[in-house]
Amino acid sequence: MIESLEAAFRQDVELVEQHLNEVLAELPDFAGQGYGRLKESVAYSLTSGGKRFRPVLALLTAEALQIEKQKALPWGCVLEMVHTYSLIHDDLPLMDNDDYRRGKPTNHKVYGEAMALLAGDGLLTEAFFWLAKSYRSQPDLLAELVGLLAGNSGLRGMVAGQAMDIEPEPQLEPASVEQLHRLKTGALIEAAVLGVSHIAQSPPPVHEALKVYSRSLGLAFQVADDLLDYDAENPEPVSLVGLLGVREARAFLEKLVDESLRSLKKVPGPTESLQQLALYNLTRLK
């Protein structure tokens, strides 16, 4: 089952890589060494590999809703641009101060902190440009997608979660850590699914079912990551595993996976890939 999912991922990742290269190819050619370095900095991080999880999730949702993947591809790549900007900024010395990302020197180690900051800024704003370019023939849909992207990536979503992570509550409670993860990690995962639901014009019951699925999936991935990374002698300070313990965190993960699977029963299309994606959070712990 997982093997077939990985095969689907490989095919969809190729589509994503091709589209991201199109994004880079359409950037203007302004004169000046600084702008040339900026484009190099953007391309360095945007083409550095990775699972491409968010755009692939968008394509798998398109498959489940029985629409052409090409209709969802720009949306998925817009989310990857926003995700990449967040990683560039996360790695900066004033944030996580990381030297390596995906086995390569982080952006600021290659291009300097100022250029890395601009690369992140540029990717975020270019994401909105590309979104408008891709869906401008459908103004009502575009308005929905702009609102979803801004809401889930900004002060109502990912950025809010990042702030909570930088300055966590003095007395952490499971509920506050869960909210942090739902915002910082889960918000863009939720957006990947719900954006495609808007593109497919899903009826309200299907849209609500996909909202439950995506919210549970996003948190499940974070809990599974925390379980895999858990070190009893040096636990992460902001971790549900550290607060709940391994056994209770594992039970919570199983609950989230079950919620994801039950919600997909309300989606009439072929949801096998989405089901496998939810189950992967359990199988990768074995």
Using brief descriptors, characterize the structure shown.
Farnesyl Diphosphate Synthase, 286 residues, two-stranded antiparallel sheet, mainly alpha
Q: From the coordinates shown, what is the CATH architecture?
A: Orthogonal Bundle
Just give the CATH class. Answer: Mainly Alpha
Kindly identify the CATH topology.
Answer: Farnesyl Diphosphate Synthase
Cα-atom radius of gyration: 19 Å
How is the biggest beta sheet arranged? 2 strands, antiparallel
Question: Into which percentage range does the β-strand content fall?
Answer: under 5%
Q: Strand order across the biggest sheet? A: 1-2
Number of individual domains: 1
**Poorly predicted segments:** none
Helix content: over 70%
Mean pLDDT: 93
* Count of alpha/pi helices: 14
Please state the structural category: mainly alpha
Q: What is the element string, with H for helices and E for strands? A: HHHHEEHHHHHHHHHH
Give the topology, please.
Layout: H1 2-25, H2 33-46, H3 53-64, H4 69-91, E1 100-101, E2 104-105, H5 107-111, H6 113-135, H7 139-153, H8 158-166, H9 174-184, H10 186-199, H11 204-229, H12 240-244, H13 246-264, H14 272-283
Antiparallel strand pairs: 1-2
Helix pairs in contact: 1-4, 2-6, 3-4, 3-10, 4-6, 4-10, 6-7, 7-10, 8-9, 10-11, 11-13, 11-14, 13-14
